[in-house]
Amino acid sequence: MQRLAPALREDNVPLDLISLIKTILAATKEISFRVSQAHLGGLMGSTLDENIQGEVQKKLDVVANELFKDILLESGFVKAISSEEEDTSVGGDKNGKFLVSFDPLDGSSNIDINSLIGTIFSIHEAPEDAEPSDPDMFKQSGNRQVCAGYVLYGPSTMLVMTTGSGTHFYVLDRTHGGYLLVERNVQVPQDTQEFAINMSNQRFWQAPMQRYISDLLAGDTGPRGKNFNMRWIAAMVGDIHRVLTRGGLFTYPSDNRNPEKPYKLRLMYEANPMSFLIEQAGGLAMTSEGRIMDIEPSDIHQRVEVIMGSKNEVEACLGYYK
Ligand code: AFP
């Protein structure tokens, strides 16, 4: 099995980006260790604080965010970072070539039940003349990502990453302390009989999503003529990992619960990096109106509708919106 750096060199990834990726992965190894020790180290449960999105922060959210932020800002490779857990972007090195957006621990509600969680990251190039304190640097579409990935802290710690030459799976080998390439050019099957959605929100969805899901639930006696299975991990990292591994449709549709907040998932550090991974694996990553990665962001914490996964199933779903 190939080590990470030679695998990246084979894909012609520039050396400074390889160095940044190694820095990110050093942080994930530390987070992986802290996650495994959380109960023993008094890191279960919540803090008394909320992040800018009004969500209560878990103790591990805060620890993972500080670790990730510190190691990136000290690296010299990064002009600024933006995180789910930070109010605004945080400036780094004036000569840093990259911007990193991240969700330090996605799936926080799974922490206390010892279930799947992960770190999601997205890398853009920083404009050369911009000041590190300028948050507008982050207003770049997903099309301009130079790398995206996640690390899943599951039974094994897995890295799933793309630099634009396919989506690859790596596993953290604790015997030598590095990530090893276990699957190159993962492909999402084009067809599926599995979907992921939080069904408890059904009454709030728009009519097209109501009709689509009801046709899936009708199974082989309904208009789709086949039975569908459902899965919901409540951590996008876990659900997308399943989709990349065996196909499926994952959606967090718009809903009318709160007219000021029709979407749940965040564009910069959830939807865009996952879209890059899914598209590089032959899947589709859309809103009901167009490609996610075409969206020009207006805010680092912007939220977006998400419909992604197996190509033919995403197209089937979008058919209901026409
Ligand atoms: P956190 O980033 O706060 O951990 O939230 C996780 C998440 O944004 C995403 O990973 C899940 O798909 C989604 O929330 C789960 O939402 P529900 O609360 O509707 O299950």
Give me the secondary-structure topology.
Elements: H1 4-10, H2 15-36, E1 46-50, E2 56-58, H3 59-73, E3 78-83, E4 90-91, E5 98-106, E6 117-125, E7 147-153, E8 157-162, E9 167-173, E10 178-183, E11 194-196, H4 207-217, E12 229-230, H5 236-246, E13 249-252, E14 265-266, H6 267-280, E15 284-286, E16 303-304, E17 306-309, H7 311-319
Parallel strand pairs: 3-5, 11-12, 11-13
Antiparallel strand pairs: 1-2, 3-4, 5-6, 6-7, 7-8, 8-9, 9-10, 13-17, 14-16, 15-17
Helix pairs in contact: 2-3, 5-6
Bound molecules: 1,6-di-O-phosphono-alpha-D-fructofuranose.
Short description:
By secondary structure, this protein is α+β, with helices and mostly antiparallel strands.
Provide structural commentary.
The protein is α+β, with helices and mostly antiparallel strands and 322 residues long. It folds into two domains: 2-183, Fructose-1,6-Bisphosphatase, Chain A, domain 1; 194-319, D-Maltodextrin-Binding Protein, domain 2, CATH 3.40.190. It contains seven helices and 17 strands. The protein has helices at residues 4-10, 15-36, 59-73, 207-217, 236-246, 267-280, 311-319, and strands at 46-50, 56-58, 78-83, 90-91, 98-106, 117-125, 147-153, 157-162, 167-173, 178-183, 194-196, 229-230, 249-252, 265-266, 284-286, 303-304, 306-309. The chain has an eight-stranded mixed sheet, sandwiched between helices. Helix 4 (207-217) links the parallel strand 11 (194-196) and strand 12 (229-230). Helix 2 (15-36) packs antiparallel against helix 3 (59-73) and helix 5 (236-246) runs parallel beside helix 6. The model has no long low-confidence stretch (mean pLDDT 95). Bound molecules: 1,6-di-O-phosphono-alpha-D-fructofuranose.
